[in-house]
Structures are given as structure tokens and as C-alpha cells.
């Protein structure tokens, strides 16, 4: 991760099935085949509704067997197709606010594209490339911070329809600035399949030096996670 702090404008871009065995052909003792009307090929009527005994082979020509298979197929159709994860996601966030006396203002943004998506039972992982920004104005003096973000991403569903996203890695160390701690885990709710929206807080960098003053202002913001269209 790299970052830049300076006064002035900043601009940057990144980056079952079923297997059945039939009796062997040519076996004289294998038994006569059953026709569609329930009679056997040797003229002896068979009971198509009789239950199978243990070890019996399912005869798919039995009318009741065909009905069972049709019901199974209908149930699978009712379940609907599995909705696969998109190949990539886009994350965007912003925040804006001012102190009570309006002497200090802060504006924050972040964005990134998440690729190399690996589905999991409770969410997915991937790799992000993007940027974060924080602009602070203190009594007319503007300070600007930007940082590239890149690396592993973890998105987990913590309860139905709600996710927690870890976009900037582990930020739990005691030396980590409040800005990064607030970004370590951010939550969102699902608005439609594979689309989430939530809130976050942009915290200060806890710096007080001649070239950069950013000590206390926390501003509220919103963020989204949506699919990226990869269609040709």
C-alpha cells in the first residue's frame, strides 16, 4: 500500500445424477421384460404398483416409476436455477461533513474493483485494486490524503441479506490510524441479488504537523457493492 499527503489537488487512478445397472443381456434367468401396459413379455401380468424389495433394480418402464421421475423433475424445476456470482464487483464510498462551528470540514471517497472472485458458502473472496481519499479543510487551509489499496478481500454474509466486507486487510494494530480502523470492516444490506448498500464513517488520520492537520472530525458516509458488467 502506498500513500501521498500534500496540499493541493490530487488525481490518481488504479486499478445425483442417478446411475442404474440393467441385468446382463442374454441371461435366460434374468426375467421377462414388462411392457407399457403392465403385462410381461411371456404373457404373465405383472403388478406395476407393487413396491420394490431390497436389492430390486428400478424398472423405468413401470408406469409408477415414470410418474415418480416426472415428479422429481418437476421439483427440480420449481427450485429454479442457481444464480452464479458475477465475475467482478465495483465498490464505491463517500462521506462528507463539518464540525459544529464549521471551522473544519472533511470529504472522503474510496473506490475499487474486485476480481478473482472465489465463491464460498457464506460469501466470497477476491482481490481489490483501488484508492481512498480524505480531504480536510481547517480554517481555510486544505489538506489532502490519498492511498492506493490492493490485496485480498473478504465478503461474508453474517445474517440473511447482510454482509460484512473487509476491503483493506487487517487494521487492528495499536499503531493504526482511526481512518484505517473504520475501514477495516464495513457492513451493508442486500438491495437486490448481488447488490449491497450500507453506511460507514470516515475518521481522521490523527495527524498534527505543519504540513497536515487532521485530528478529530469523523463524518458519516454511504457505500455500495455492485456487479461489474463483463458482457462482451
Structural account:
With 232 residues, the chain is mainly beta. The protein folds into 2 domains: 34-81, no CATH class; 87-227. 10% of the residues lie in helices and 44% in strands. It has 2 helices and 11 strands. The protein is elongated and about 50 Å long. Residues 6-50, 54-58 and 73-80 have low confidence and may be disordered.
Summary of the model, kept short:
By secondary structure, the protein is mainly beta. Helices cover 10% and strands 44% of the residues.
- How helix-rich are the residues, as a percent range? 10-25%
Mean pLDDT: 77
Given helix and strand content, the structural type is mainly beta
Question: How is the main sheet built?
Answer: 8 strands, antiparallel, barrel
Radius of gyration: 31 Å
Number of helices: 2
Strand content: 35-45%
* Strand and helix order: EHEEEEEHEEEEE
